[in-house]
Amino acid sequence: MCGITGYIGYDEAAPILIRALKKLEYRGYDSAGVAVIDGEKIFVRKMKGRIELLDKSLLEAPLSGTVGIGHTRWATHGEPSDINSHPHTDSEGRIAIVHNGIIENYVKLKQWLQSRGVVFRSDTDTEVIVHIINYFYRASGGAMLDAVLETLKLLNGSYALAILSSDYPDRIIAARKDNPLVAGLGKNGVFIASDIPALLEHTRDVIFLNDGEVAVLYRDHIELRGGDGEALKRETTHIDWDIDSAEKGGYPHFMLKEIFEQPKAMSDALGPRLKKDASANAIIDFDEVKLDERWTQARRIVITACGTAYHAGIIGKYAFERLARVPVEVDIASEYRYRDPVFDRNDVVIVISQSGETADTLAAMRLAKQNGAQVFAITNAPGSTLSREADAVIYTYAGPEIGVASTKAFTTQVMCVYLLALELGRLRGCVSAPAYRRYTAALSAIPNQARQILDKKELLQRFAARHFNKAKVFFMGRQFDYPVSMESALKLKEISYTHSEAFAAGELKHGPIALVDSSTLVAAIATQRALFEKIASNIREVTSRGAASLVITWQGVDSFDTVSDEVFTLPETEGCLSPLLSVIPSQLFAYYCAVQRGNDPDKPRNLAKSVTVE
Ligand code: M6R
User: In this predicted structure, what is the pLDDT of residue 560?
Assistant: First the structure.
């Protein structure tokens, strides 16, 4: 998730841009850059690495000028490098842009531009935007705003943009769709940024851009336009947050913010892969991985990972076996690397890691490669060791996750796994055309359904307020609900420090029930309709022994109303896709329990975000 800043005013722009970028550091980044107009020319300075490096370079060789844009890049297309860093310019260096988001149709646009002789310098999706603006700019005889509006009409995907033109040094043009932008009028000029903290030093009266809107910033005023260029009016909003809470976008913790970012993150993971074929039917297509014979003929898929990523792997097992009828083995990476597993050159090996730096996961990947396997990585971190060493990489596009407890990284991993399983199922003839249509439609609906769950967060907050002090919390489920139970228990123990475990509900009588008493809360994930009766019996078994209970199930299901103390309902999706939704209440429950217990959910004791040692 990149950070954007822009300034047009009466002071030197570069130091202002750098200070603003530092306020956006929390978003995560791997490179940084600025572009400043000095007289009639745009000067760009950008580099891989920390903002401090860029700052140092600017102190040694300053860029002068009172108009500029800045960027921190979180790589999605193309590795973190100087050349892929933003700003990007057109071929003549007269237009510069910074971009946050993903342009889903960039391959087509790039081919079209290349056919017109445009030479690309970077591997980014962003670079197409500046070349298209230039194309329309030339075609329109120099109408910059029109050129931007025409360009936006061609872009599929998400963007927040800030655009400089050396022909118009009196303005910055900004635009947004599905990525935040906020503008502010200060005493010494006008500012634009991805988030409020970057503006607070200069002003607390801000204008939030809505999707589809364009802002033209001048030194002393801001013009707001709709997608067709029509003038819009907007009241300013006064910000009275303290700076720390502003960096969390108004959320008290990064974890809560990241839980709430899941609809967008899942949509970002889905969008670039769910395309339309020539007959406008939905089709799953990974630009980065072709599901060739290696996949379709595979006799086995092996998935390996740690922690939350391992739980995504177990969901993968259920999904590949259900949808593509391929046997799957899932292994905890620290076990896989030492247990002398059996290798088969025809295996497909999938390694899942949000950070791409987990020591055990990397060792498991290397072991598989040494033994002849081709390794496919699912990760959120371009430029990570995993992404560099794996044979092919699928990015989850979750954006940076700051909270130690993985939330949006998990749901986007699961989304990628489903896309793979479903497409493989189609290719292997295991998923019929009508079923494929049903599943792809269901996947498209998930982000919105996730929003509906988040809207009911208070129910879980109240439930957590009643039960946060339970000595033991157990999660149970069957089929797809079992790995969700495992992830739910991990979330709760990580941040609330409550003793929490998960088991397959069918195992209840084989041991766990011995622990159940009135100090226990048992939460059942119940989304598999064929097994409702069995789960209802399991709940009766625990409540009759004094346990409190919670059931997470579909809206409209009444099978648990008289059985459980509390029922939390979800908008219904296909049973085999349920983990994408059913994990969200557990994440919220864990979060609220941690807060009730006075813990910092973002920095749980003894845990690190990235476990780079054994
Ligand atoms: O970066 P990775 O996905 O490889 O990390 C694996 C685990 O360390 C990680 O999922 C851990 O379990 C999280 N703290 C879970 O919230």
Answer: 96
Do the Cβ atoms of 35 and 87 come closer than 8 Å? yes
Q: Is 477 exposed, middle or buried (0-12, 13-18, 19+ CB in 10 A)?
A: buried
Cα(421)–Cα(444) distance, integer angstroms: 16
**Residue 107, number of CB atoms within 10 A of its CB:** 14
Report if residue 607 sits inside a domain: no
Q: Which residues pair with 224 in a beta bridge?
A: 215, 232
Q: Specify whether 571 is located in the same domain as 594.
A: yes
Query: Which pLDDT does position 244 carry in this prediction?
Result: 65
Probe target for ligand 1 pocket from 258, 259, 262, 306, with the most ligand atoms within 8 Å of CB: 306
**Ligand 1 atom at minimum distance from 407 CA:** 16
Tell me if 309 CB under 6 Å of ligand 1.
Answer: yes
Asked whether 33 and 97 are in contact (CB, 8 A), the reply is: no
Ligand 1 pocket test, pick from 258, 259, 308, 607 with the greatest ligand atom count within 8 Å of Cβ, gives: 308
Rounded to whole angstroms, the Cα distance separating 390 from 88 reads: 28
Q: Are residues 191 and 269 in the same domain?
A: no
Answer yes or no: is the C-beta of 384 below 6 A from any ligand 1 atom: no
Phi, psi of 216 (to 5 degrees): -110, 120
Domain range for 291 is 248-454
Residue 259 corresponds to which amino acid? Answer: I
Q: What are the residue ranges in the chain where pLDDT is below 50?
A: none
Q: pTM of the entire structure?
A: 0.82
Contact 400, 80 (CB under 8 A): no
* Residue 575 DSSP code: G
pLDDT tens-digit series, residues 201-212: 999 999 989 889
